[in-house]
Amino acid sequence: MNLKNDLRDVGYDLIDSPIRNHKPLQLWLKKTFDVPELYYENVNHAFRSDTEIDIIEDQALRVNYNQQQQYKFNIGITVLEQLLVSLGLGNLSLSSKFKSGSSVSISYGKSKTLTIPSGIISRFFSMADFQHPNPELIRNANRNNILIITGVLSAKDLKATIVTNKEIDNSVTGELSDMAEGNASFQMTSDNVMEIYSEGNAAFPIAVKANRLDFDKGEYSDIKLITDNRSFF
After folding, report:
1. What SS3 state is found at 123?
2. Are the C-beta atoms of residues 214 and 144 closer than 8 Å to each other?
3. What residue numbers bound the domain in which 204 lies?
């Protein structure tokens, strides 16, 4: 099963950067040609409204090790190393130990999804005002530069499978285990395949749902889902 496609089907973008501080109701700034950057930690820091927003758990959206994302080797090592950095395992330096191969696959376990229904978000903004006069905020709102995080899929467990094109030296397993200091385990499933497990972590974001706020001359118009067909995160 293709994890990226499964998540896109329900409006989520699989995170592929080392930045994993995403939370529901954050506001992010997305200007043309720029990567998104955190703008406000919570929508209530920028807007006030008579409508309260409750974050709920989506019991239907969970992922497991059967849903994996497979990459070509060098792309996969790049994505995996960035992910390991966010888990405090950036010292493993996988790219220096695995020079060539055919593929890298990544999957997750013990997942949880927190979300806010789009109707609640729309009601909030239809009644909202700024917390205080804010020229920069109205400029970004009118230019539709503001994204709101409306869902975050997190996981506690990570599994990665590295397939090389030559036999992996047995010493690599021990070396990586020492460097991980108990925060990850390494298992050879064949001469050229290594599996990496990092389990029992604090939950970390793996995918986000985000909507773009649509304002017209200071008046809220709509929210538009943008993570169902674009890779912003």
Report:
1. helix
2. yes
3. 3-225
Task: Tell me the per-residue pLDDT of 78-101, one tens digit each, with 9 for 90 and over.
Answer: 999 988 888 888 788 888 888 889
User: DSSP string spanning 15-52?
Assistant: --SS-----TT-EEE--TTSPPEEEESSGGGTEE-SS-
Q: How many residues does the chain have?
A: 233
The reply to whether 182 falls in a domain is yes
Residue 149 has pLDDT above 90, yes or no: yes
81 domain residue, yes or no? yes
Q: 203-226 b/e with 16+ CB inside 10 Å = b? A: ebbbbbbbbbbbbeeeebeebebb
Cα 80 to Cα 74: distance, rounded to the nearest angstrom? 10
Residue 22 scores a pLDDT above 80: yes
Containing H/E element for 55? none
